[in-house]
Amino acid sequence: MKIDNDDKLSKRLERVIHWSVRTLSILMVFVIVMGVLDVAWILYQRMITPPIYILTISDMLATFGAFMAVLIAIEIFINITIYLRENVIHVKIVMATALMAIARKVIIIDVEEMDVMYLFAISAVALSMSVGYWLIHQLPRQSHLDE
Length: 147
Fold this sequence. Notes:
It is a multi-pass membrane protein. By secondary structure, the protein is mainly alpha-helical. It has helices at 2-48, 57-86, 91-108, 116-146.
C-alpha cells in the first residue's frame, strides 16, 4: 500500500518539475527577446554617439559581450528544450554553454583593471573547460574503437 502512495507522489512531483521546466523555457524566450532588444539598443546608442556611425574598440567589445550573452541564453534554452523532450541533461551541450560563457568573459575582460590572480583563475577555468569538452568529444570515439 505504501509503495503505491509513493509512486503517486513521485508522479505528481515529476509533473510539477515538468511544468516548472516549461515555465523556465517560456521565461528564457522572454530573456532572449529582451537580450536581442538590448543588443539593438546598445548598437543604436553607440552609433549615434560621436563620432557618429563609428564603433570604437571598446564599443565593439561591449557589443560582443551583449551578443554573447544572448547566444548563451539561446544555448540555455536549447538545454531546457532537450531536457523537456528527452528528460535527460546532455553534458556536451552544458559544457558547450559553459565554454561560451567563459569565452564571453575572456572577450570582455579588461586585463589592465584585473588582478593577476583573477586572470590566472579565468585562464584555469577556460583551460579545464576546454579539456573537459575535448574529452567528452573523445569518449564516443574511444568506446567505438574498443568494440
